[in-house]
Every structure is written in structure tokens, then in C-alpha cells.
């Protein structure tokens, strides 16, 4: 099994192109700037370039430039001499010295203060290291720098938060990793890869993704990119009880919000009243709906409209619908049989592919209802 982070999974055109660019980047010794949102795989790129390069005998040294106060970052990078600050009991080499003849990966370089940027620029121009507290430079090192950022550096330059001269130093080869939502073709392969990986790691049987679940996962926007997908898969593997993962096993945030276009344009007032009795009045489905339907006081279309409305609420889940209509879980089969028998079972898929608009509508609507109630009360 591959170790974590030593493979660039994906077959989208963007990833294929990056693989090629990585190859020529590995052959040269030029500085590289990698940009892309958080969790897209910038460190994976850096690691692979280092491994394919002539420096691969050395360890890739990594440092995250965000979140460290200047003084600490400076001593981490350049080292310090004994007595240069409280707690500096002995001389210590910095990471740039450790990375001599190898590669350093500087993550979140866009977060560096202007002072640290000046120090880094000086190092990049001379290759000289001056430890904190030292009188003069004590070593010249040969380090390849790969820097990464999820910031838009042009904007940082415009706002004078990032030095333009440092930008041009770092940006000899520029690699951009697009967010996962712009290369959805990679999602199935990433899912498969991490499902296999985590099943092995947790000694579990490898679960299979049902096609419907897969298509929802491909449709999801993955704001946290591959890192989010990876963590999601680990939880999924740990929770998987049966061998197959269905949409019902997916968390709510993965399920797309409702799309306005699929709503029933007209709903009878009778249906509205029934829905109200079920959902707000917490009355039972069987006397409120089933009985009038069986005695033909309610039409098929009405029943379909009621079910659709419930499914909008539960995003297509019949199990949740059973709860919403106040039936015990044990009634699930009876409920579905009843709908099927009268040709009122709506395909749940259409309630899964819903857009944010309906959510916004729903909020507007409930605000309207509240206002109307207030007016009525007054
Ligand atoms: N294409 C890929 N194939 C396999 N694993 C990947 C891929 N892209 C990312 N990963 C994995 O996803 C996680 C996040 O990737 P990485 O740390 O490289 O992101 P990053 O861009 O450096 O994020 P940040 O900006 O937050 O530091 C890592 O565990 C990495 O191994
Ligand atoms: Mg990173």
C-alpha cells in the first residue's frame, strides 16, 4: 500500500497537465510557487517534485509560515546562537541549513510579515544563513525552495502586504492546483482510493458506493477540497455497517439543497391544511391522510402533492418522511406499499438535486408566515 501523500490521484485534464509540469519542474532546479485553495494538494505536489528531483536523497523539509510569531519563525528558518534569547541554551541550526542539498517546502508563504519577507529575500539572493543572534552570516547553503499559498498574491502585492520582488523570486515556475469542484472527474477515483486506504488501515471490509450515492458525492462542492473528502471517507468507512453505502448513509451537508423548479406550482388548500395538521399539529398520517384517501375524499394528485411536499422537506428520504408524518418506524413498509399500490410513490432522486434557491425561498416563506401570524395576533 502507498504511504499517505505520495501519490497524486486524479485523471482530470488539470491533473494530467500538472503531472507533466511536475516532470519538467523536477528536472530543473528552479524555484516553484504552488497556489491553490486549502486542502487541494499543494504539499502533495511539492513532495512528488522533490522525490523525482536530483535532490531526492535528502529529506524534504517543510515549514508552515502561518501561525508562528516572527521571532520563532526566524529562528526556525535560520537557527540561533546560544544566549540569543531566553531559553536558547545552545547553538541550533535552522531548517534552511537542515535542508542543505535538499528541498524546503514553505507553506502559507503569503502569511509572512514584511520583515520575514525581507529576510527570506536576502537568503534567496545570497544563499547565506545568519542565525538569530549571530554577528554575521555563517553558512552558505544550497536549498531548493518550493513555496505555497492559498492567497491571491497579486492582491497582497497591490495592498502592499507582499513584496513584489520576493514574488518574482519565488514564482519562477508557477503551478496552480484547481479546487476539486472544478475537476469533479477526480472525485470517483479519490473516493475509491481513500475507501481502500482506510478500509485497510482500520482492518475493515471494503464497502461499495451505490451509484446514487456516488453521483451525490460527485455533485457536492467540497469546499475543503481533497482534505475534506479524505476525512469524510474515513468517517464513512468507520461507520459503514453493511457492505454498501447508500444516499441514506450520507450526511445532510452532502445532499444538495432543493431546486425551486421542481416544486409543485399549485397545491390545493386541502393539501396545505393536511400538511399543516401532520407537521405542525403532529397528527398521525393514517387517520389524517390514509382514511380520507381510501374513502375517496382525497384524490391521487392531492396525495402526490402531499408526499412531494414532505419529500422536499426530507430531501428525498422516505425514512425521514415516516417520522415527519408521525408514524412509528415500523410503519415504513406499510407506508411505501400503500403509496406504491396507488401509484403515488414519487421518485426520490428529484428531491436530492436541489439548489440553494429553494432554501432561500423557504426562509422567505417562513418569514412571511411569521409576519402574517404576527399581524393576525395583533
Ligand atoms: N490528488 C491527490 N491524491 C491523493 N491525495 C491527495 C491529493 N490531493 C490532496 N491529497 C491529500 O489531501 C490532504 C490535503 O492535501 P495537502 O496537504 O497537500 O493540501 P494543501 O493544498 O497543502 O492544503 P493547505 O493549503 O491547507 O496546506 C493530504 O492528506 C493529501 O495527502
Ligand atoms: Mg499544505
What keywords describe this structure?
five-stranded parallel sheet, alpha/beta, Rossmann fold, Helicase, Ruva Protein, domain 3, 378 residues, 10% strand, 48% helix, single chain, two-stranded antiparallel ribbon, binds adenosine-5'-triphosphate, binds magnesium ion
Question: Care to give the gist of this entry?
Answer:
The protein is built from 16 helices and 11 strands.
Description:
The chain has 378 residues and is an alpha/beta fold. It has three domains: 166 residues, P-loop containing nucleotide triphosphate hydrolases (Rossmann fold); 72 residues, Helicase, Ruva Protein, domain 3 (Orthogonal Bundle); 84 residues. It contains 16 helices and eleven strands. A five-stranded parallel β-sheet has the order 2-5-8-1-9. Strands 3-4 form a two-stranded antiparallel ribbon. Strands 6-7 form a two-stranded antiparallel ribbon. Helix 1 crosses helix 2, helix 8 packs across helix 10 and helix 11 packs across helix 13. The C terminus is likely disordered. Adenosine-5'-triphosphate binds next to helix 2 and helix 10.
